[in-house]
Amino acid sequence: MQDWFDVAEKIETRTLAAAGKAGIDQAAFSAEARPADPRFGDVQVNGALPYAKRLKANPREIAQKIVDELAKDEAVTDVAELSIAGPGFINFRFKPSFYLDWLNDFSTESVYREAAAKLYAGERVVVDYGSPNTAKQMHVGHIRSIVIGEAICRLLEFCGADVTRDNHIGDWGTPYGKLFYAYKRHLDPDALKADPLGELERLYKLGSQLASDDKAVLEESRQELVQLQDGKPESMKLWETVNQLSIQGLKEVYDQLDVTYDCYLGESFYRDRVDLVYKELEECQLAEESNGALVVFHPEHKRYAEQPFIIRKSDGASNYATTDLATMLYRHEHFKATRIIIVTDDRQKDHFEQLDLTTAKWFEKTGRTRPAFDHVMFGKINGDDGKPIKSRSGDPIRLKDLISEAIERAHTVVKEKNSDLPEEELQLIAETVGISSIKYADLSSNRTSDYVFSWEKLLSFEGNTAPYLLYAATRIQSIFRKLDPSDLENLEARASVFETGEEIALARKIVEFVGALQITIDTLRPHMLSGYLYELAGAFSGFYAANKVIVEDDGQKARRLILCQRALLALKIGLSLLGIKTLERM
Ligand code: ARG
Question: Which of 95, 197, 451, 495 is most buried (CB neighbours < 10 A)?
């Protein structure tokens, strides 16, 4: 089976061969194939230009010689038409029959999976995303890591990787002293039952407040922390309780977002593994004492030559850096990870750069194979005023509340559009549309930029939004509901070759799906895929507006139904990779 890349590769080999036959020095000629300007073709080879420049020859003449040879090659002329554009670009425009063959092959999800599995089969990837600090509510800022991380997991899995979803929760350290102080004195047990995370957060805030007002409280909180760090049974028991409640509260939100972790190996899990980190880093002379702390400098680096990676504080306590180093080792040894991906906001850029540099040297000196490492970072979510969004009270918006509001608003929007749906179905649709809309708003923005959160925009049926794409999918499905079962029999055998511009434009868009997947996963940027899906839905609209599907001519009807089916297939796969469920109707 061939996919887009096999075809591009085939074009490269054939063009190189043709160049050789045309008397061109193959070693000095690049046959690299790239996507072409759609006005001229599908694939383009530009190598004639630099080649001619070096020889001070005419690039168009060189291109012509190559094209003359290519024209004799049936492997090429069977699938594409050739032309030369501008100063000497060689363009290949696929024939309508090539598209039809391709679409006939790519008829099910498993065919796509099989083609995509070439990309990452054999890789074991640990994806660390979500990863909030516990005993606190998740607020709106947490959604980015969850949604982007989950999309990356799904994409990698689709491409054949073995993925472990790890929630590296911040469940250890200084906040627990103040939390425990308040918990022991000010707990409201009913509130804890009704809303565990809300109550724990209230207690933590109260503890912090009391400690900053009163030195004696601060001292008592410190004692609480010391007892926890010493592993006193009573403290450990309380920690256990708080942690279980936290995870339970987190899971409620993850369930709504359709995210399930394989493990919750938080900072506490690594607390007994940090001594090995100190020992090894000292032994390989990477770590040194500096003002009582244990630190790692990177002399070859502009900033980290001066600004060290602190791996043990001067009071002897471990920190975020130490647990992360231990985490790297565990993921290598226990999960046999070939790649580690950590998804956080961009304020942690320096931390992860230093972590990566340190791990690289540490693993090299200890003869370990270092997994590939990506820090997938993202920007802020701003309100209309360009500042980070806040609730009316000025606090960050709780993620739970954001989700409820999205569902409520989606309910109104869907009801306006389709008022005769029964209430029960309306509610289910509103849940999918609401949650998809906030997910999609995030996934359709370039993750490294800040983005503006706007309810109007993200719930609109126009533009690159979840409602628009979900609606496009339901429209295609409604075509199939109106058919006779016999209409769908033996489509491939009945179909005639595409003719109209809209048919060909849609076919070409569907074929580009594999390429869109590859670029998304190469860059770990889900907005590449969402941009593609938006274009696909647009190509479908264009086709559907201009070409009737249920027509007399059976060959025409069959080929148009193939287009409908394959467009729906690509749309569904693409959306599900972004973590978005499609609907039958809305
Ligand atoms: N808990 C951290 C935070 O809330 C994120 C953890 C990311 N993962 C890691 N291995 N450091 O910022």
Answer: 197
